[in-house]
Specification:
The chain is an all-alpha fold and 377 residues long. The chain has 16 helices and two strands. A two-stranded antiparallel ribbon has the order 1-2. It is globular and about 80 Å long. It starts with 7 loop residues before the first helix and ends with a helix.
Length: 377
C-alpha cells in the first residue's frame, strides 16, 4: 500500500501565507497602546453610558473625576513597582514622596505667594531631593530592615503633618489650594476634562519613564539585583548606587503624582501621608501583577475604581434592604475590597494581567485534550 505525501516545496508554500498573516497580526498588535491612548483621550467627548460601572455618561464631570483618579493611581502604582517589582525593594514609605509633592507645592503657593508653575517645580525638586536623602540612608540596610526604616521615615512625616508646625500643613483637616493662584483652565467643574487630560498625561509620562529605565542598561542591573544581589557584586558592580537610582526615580514620579493630585482634589489632605496609603499602593501592584509592564497600571485603575464604586454600593438602598447577616459585611467597603483582593490572589496568581495568558493556556489544553480523544479509536 502506498502513502501519498505532500512535497516539501508545497508544504512551505502553504505555510508561508499563514506565517505572513501571523507576522502582520503581531506587528499590528504593537500599536494597541497608541490606539488605547487615542480612545482615552476622547473619553471627555463621549456620552456613552456604562451601567454598573459608572453613573451616567462617561464624559460627565463626576465620572471624569473618578477616571482621572484611576489614571493617576495607575501611574503612581507603576512608579512604585520600580522598587517592588523591578528591583525587589519593599518600601513602606512611598506615600511620603507623594505627600511631599502635594504639601510642598501647596505650602509654597499659600505662604510665599508664588505662582503654581514655580511652586510645582520647587515641590518636584523637593520630592526628588527628599527621596535621594532618605533613600541614601534607608539603603544602608536591606531586606526587612530596609522596609522598617522606610516605614519609620513615613511615620515621622505623617506625625509632622498632623502636628501642623506653624500652621503650614493644616493638621488633620489639611489645606485647600488657593484657587486664585492655580491656572484658570484647571479650576472649576467646567474644566474637569482638562484635569482628566492632565492625569492621562501623567500616566503617559510615568509609563514612558519606567519603560525607558527598565530597558536601559541600569534596568538590567535592577533585574540582576532582584534575582541575586550577591551575583551583581561578584560582577564588579555596586548595587547600592543602582538601588538608589531606582529609589530616586520612583520618588520623583511619586512627587509629580502628588502635584497632579493637588489639582484633582483642590487641596492637601493628611490621608496621603499615612502608611495605609503605601499599603494601598502595594495592593494595587500585587492585584495587577508585580514586575510586569501593564500589571501595576491595571491594578491601580481597578483598585481606585473599586474603592469608589464599592463605597457607593455599600451606601445604596439595595444593600440597606438586605437581611442583617448579609447587610453588615456588604455595608463595609474595606471588607468588599479585601474579599475582592483575596479572590483575585487565589484565582489569579501573578495578578489580573496574567488572565489572558491563563485563558489561552486553558483553551490550548482543552483543544489538545479534544484532539487526543478524537484520535483514540
Amino acid at each position: 500500500m502506498t502513502t501519498a505525501t505532500q512535497p516539501r516545496g508545497e508544504a512551505r508554500t502553504a505555510d508561508h501565507p499563514r506565517a505572513a498573516r501571523a507576522g502582520q497580526l503581531r506587528r499590528a498588535a504593537r500599536w494597541w497602546p497608541a490606539l488605547l491612548l487615542v480612545v482615552l483621550f476622547t473619553v471627555p467627548y463621549s456620552a456613552l453610558p456604562l451601567p454598573g460601572l459608572l453613573d451616567g455618561p462617561i464624559g460627565s464631570p463626576g465620572n471624569l473625576q473618578l477616571l482621572a483618579l484611576c489614571l493617576l493611581f495607575g501611574g503612581l502604582a507603576t512608579g512604585y513597582d520600580l522598587l517592588l517589582g523591578r528591583t525587589g525593594l519593599l518600601s513602606f514609605g512611598h506615600a511620603l514622596y507623594f505627600a511631599a509633592g502635594t504639601y510642598v507645592t501647596n505650602a509654597i503657593m499659600l505662604e510665599a505667594g508664588l505662582p503654581f508653575a514655580v511652586s510645582a517645580l520647587l515641590g518636584l525638586l523637593f520630592g526628588v531631593a527628599l527621596s535621594a536623602l532618605l533613600g541614601a540612608v534607608s539603603l544602608r540596610v536591606s531586606g526587612i530592615g530596609f522596609s522598617m526604616v522606610t516605614l519609620a521615615f513615613a511615620q515621622a512625616g505623617s506625625i509632622l503633618v498632623q502636628r501642623d508646625p506653624g500652621g503650614i500643613t493644616g493638621g488633620e483637616e489639611g489645606r485647600a489650594a488657593p484657587t486664585d493662584q492655580l491656572p484658570a483652565s484647571l479650576v472649576g467643574i467646567e474644566h474637569t476634562a482638562n484635569l482628566y487630560w492632565l492625569a492621562l498625561a501623567y500616566l503617559v509620562v510615568v509609563v514612558c519613564a519606567v519603560q525607558w529605565a527598565v530597558r536601559s542598561p541600569i534596568g538590567r542591573v535592577w533585574e540582576g539585583i532582584k534575582e541575586n544581589e550577591r551575583r551583581v557584586e561578584v560582577l564588579g558592580l555596586r548595587p547600592y548606587g543602582f538601588k538608589l537610582a531606582a529609589f530616586v526615580l520612583a520618588g520623583g514620579l511619586a512627587a509629580l503624582g502628588g502635584i497632579v493630585y493637588l489639582l484633582l482634589t483642590g487641596g492637601a489632605t493628611p490621608q496621603t501621608t499615612t502608611s495605609d496609603f503605601t499599603l494601598s499602593l502595594l495592593v494595587m501592584v500585587v492585584l495587577g501583577g508585580s514586575g510586569t509592564r501593564w500589571g501595576p497600571l491595571l491594578g491601580g485603575i481597578l483598585y481606585t475604581w473599586a474603592d469608589h464604586r464599592l463605597g457607593d454600593l455599600a451606601d445604596s438602598g439595595a444593600v440597606a434592604g438586605l437581611p442583617a447577616v448579609v447587610r453588615v459585611p456588604l455595608s463595609q467597603p474595606l471588607f468588599l475590597l479585601g474579599a475582592l483582593f483575596v479572590a483575585v490572589i487565589y484565582l489569579l496568581p501573578g495578578g489580573v494581567v496574567r488572565l489572558p495568558a491563563r485563558l489561552r493556556a486553558a483553551r490550548a489544553s482543552r483543544v489538545a485534550t479534544s484532539h487526543q480523544e478524537a484520535s483514540q479509536p
